[in-house]
Design the sequence.
């Protein structure tokens, strides 16, 4: 069965907070480096069917600027490469 995770971008007010929420909800290991490269790498390694719903992407872009855009791109690219990980965004 696919696991569905809902995250609220309004709670991701800093880069560190964004990575902390992703790490917690996606059960990342302690060695997660809290950066986009590690995020991408761990999402590619994931074999558990997971669907991530990120709500409030406009707020994420507002809070994190270009980093927020890059974060959304990283999640999208990982979902294209790894068939067990899917993502959807809601403004």
Sequence:
């Amino acid at each position: 069965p696919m696991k569905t995770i809902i995250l609220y971008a309004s709670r991701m007010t800093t880069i560190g907070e964004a990575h902390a929420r992703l790490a917690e909800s996606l059960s990342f290991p302690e060695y997660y480096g809290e950066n986009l490269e590690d995020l991408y790498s761990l999402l590619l390694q994931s074999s558990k069917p997971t669907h991530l719903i990120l709500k409030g992407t406009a707020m994420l872009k507002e809070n994190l600027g270009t980093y927020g855009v890059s974060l959304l791109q990283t999640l999208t690219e990982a979902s294209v490469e790894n068939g067990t990980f899917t993502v959807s965004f809601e403004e």
Observations:
- The chain has a mean pLDDT of 95.
- The chain has four helices and three strands.
- The helical segments are 15-25, 36-45, 57-64, 66-81.
